[in-house]
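Data deposition worksheet. Section B asks for the primary sequence of the deposited chain exactly as it was used as input, without tags or linkers unless they were present during the calculation. Section C holds the resulting structure in token form. Section D is free text for depositor observations; keep each observation to a single sentence. Incomplete worksheets are returned to the depositor.
Section A, Depositor: J.P.
Section B:
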Amino acid sequence: MLRFLKGVVGGVSGTGLKDLPYNIGDPYPSAWGSWTHHRGTSCKDGDGSPVSIFSLSASNAQDSLLAAARNGVKRLRTVRHPNILSFLHSTEVETVEGSSSRVTIYIVTEPVMPLSEKIKELGLEGTQRDEYYAWGLNQIAKAVSFLNNDCKLVHGNVCLASVVVTPTLDWKLHAFDVLSEFDGNNGNATGPMLQYEWLIGSQYKPMELAKSDWVAIRKSPPWAIDSWGLGCLIYELFSGMKLGKTEELRDTASIPKSLLQDYQRLLSSMPSRRMNTAKLLENSVSGLLSFGESWGALIDMAPSAGREEKNISRISWWTPYTFMEILTLKDSVEKDTFFRKLPNLAEQLPRQIVLKKLLPLLASALEFGSAASPALTALLKMGSWLSAEEFSVKVLPTIVKLFSSNDRAIRVSLLQHIDQYGESLSAHVVDEQVYSHVATGFSDTSALLRELTLKSMLILAPKLSQRTISGSLLKYLSKLQVDEEPAIRTNTTILLGNIAIYLNEGTRKRVLINAFTVRALRDTFSPARGAGLMALCATSSYYDVTEIATRILPNVVVLTIDPDSDVRSKSFQAVEQFLQIVKQYHEKTNAGDTTAASTGISSIPANASLLGWAMSSLTIKGKPLEQAPLASANSGLPLSSRTSNASSEIVVDSPSIAAVQINSSTDLADQPVSESPTSTDESKPSPALVNIQAAQKRPVSQPVPQPKAQATSLRPKSTVKVTKDEDDDLWGSIAAPAPKTSTRPLNVKSATTLDDDDPWASIAAPPPTTRARPLAAGRGRGKPAAPKLGAQRINRTSSSGM
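Section C:
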């Protein structure tokens, strides 16, 4: 028998704490009986996960306290229920101190806290306190009913001290030292049924147990003793005091009226008439937490025609919790209504209950796909109440997993709220786990998803490696610069201007000028041309004087006669800024500074500001997309040089961009607003714009050094003038093919007239040309055909008269 008990507790005397792979921490002020409740951490795998460690010591190995403790270890290890404390490990240690020895039993369980300590920590009052108590009593009643009705066991000492609380605020029953089988079949036996009943405090004993009337106890129902203990627990909870003597149970002033009748039946003087704990679950405790009425009230809060939204403060916290537990049984309409109301409802509930009960359930529902996309808004709202460390542990893992979801609504919601959690994502997680899923949105068929993916890069790009930026991101941006949606083309240019600081020098050289001048400045959509000008100004410190004089200024100057007034204003501003840089180079050169030509000029005008998103032309179900620009949430992102205070605000009534209004701080207040071309007309540029694009297409010849005589003598002279720029090849080599669209493409040349010197010729407007009509044979100006020499075949026709 002794060997069996030692095997049950997981160790033998003298093995020491080496058999306990846990660190014992500080004890709690209170615990049940003679046990000491310690905080602890696990040493397994070095994870340091929290646990609870209970210890009990005695000087004699045959001490009755140790015998009762061994009974408690055995019972806790073998009885499993969601509302009973979970057992992890146990051991028994004998330590020698001088001539005496001491035996200690350790029990390791899931991390819990004494209920009395948790009540002080929560500090609940009024209705919220009563609701939390009733919910906890519901859980303890389930545990007691399981022991009494299903297992035919008697706990013997249900009270405040025998209840502990998990980090998620669940109540658990423990203290199984007195636990014994109910011996009701042996009604004539006079011996004690509870071997360790002497551990029970006299104030918690019912009359028959206080008198040791074992015959009456055996004839009573199995729940008689524990129903009395449950009544003691109710008194201690609502009175806020530990029960001192049995007579105090008659004071019902603090007991809620809805619970009073059942409280009295639990404490009946006749054991046979005491209420079964299973019946208690069906009565007042369950009624106090009635889900049907609360959920009906929550649905009734939804505003409708002629009815205003009602106050949600009367809704119990039990309402959303119970709904989340049975979420899989609800239809999509109920889920959508619930999750849209949940953010406002959460503000009215106790903060600790929201963070420790609702938040884990919500994260789990999202992770496993049972929650709708509006649940993400509620998750981020609750997560904002956590500290940065807790947010990284409780919320971020769920968000990272959601990026792999195939649900388009979830992906859209993630991108719409990326400003709320993007800064918390580590660079490693973004580069290795998040970006690959986000990048699928660049080529999505939904224009809304492509636009949100593009805007998310303002937050994610600083966390990407140079390999990912050069090998993947820039390819997608190259494709988006010829997207069928004008708004996406415009915002792609703005994004390139904002993330230029995160590109290495070589990438800037081969990307920025080509992207801004060859594509953006030649776009048929006027806001896209304006965005190109803004991006050039914002990145002016990355260009040397030669690039400014030969590649930037020629393309910018022609836009000073652009049909759109806002583009003209930005063009004049850009010309002034780049001319100032060239003048500074001229002054430095005259002063003898020979290094100015090879380095960018950083002295940019002080009126710089962050490039903001130009527009959001996309809609959801016919309604304009309502979202705040990401630039406002990321105003702290630096740019080495930024544009003047030029910000664009575009009002769009439909996806086809029926009306576009651009307001610039550089325009006069009374200046008339020009109307930009719509997306349906952008393939038909005005004659003035055609001439501008034709002028942009003409390359600026640069002085070429004369080749050596030896080289010219060995190589024949070529009749083809090479004007191809090496930078164009580099940007073109990473450019993605233009998407196939159903709309009319931009001005694309035919394959026979494509200019190989310009890799962006496919999106540039062709210069006006005429095609001569072919002349008829034998007509036209010129010399007549020379007579043919030699014998000629003459076709003669026979005549009937000859």
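Section D:
The radius of gyration is 41 Å.
The first strand starts at residue 22 and ends at 27.
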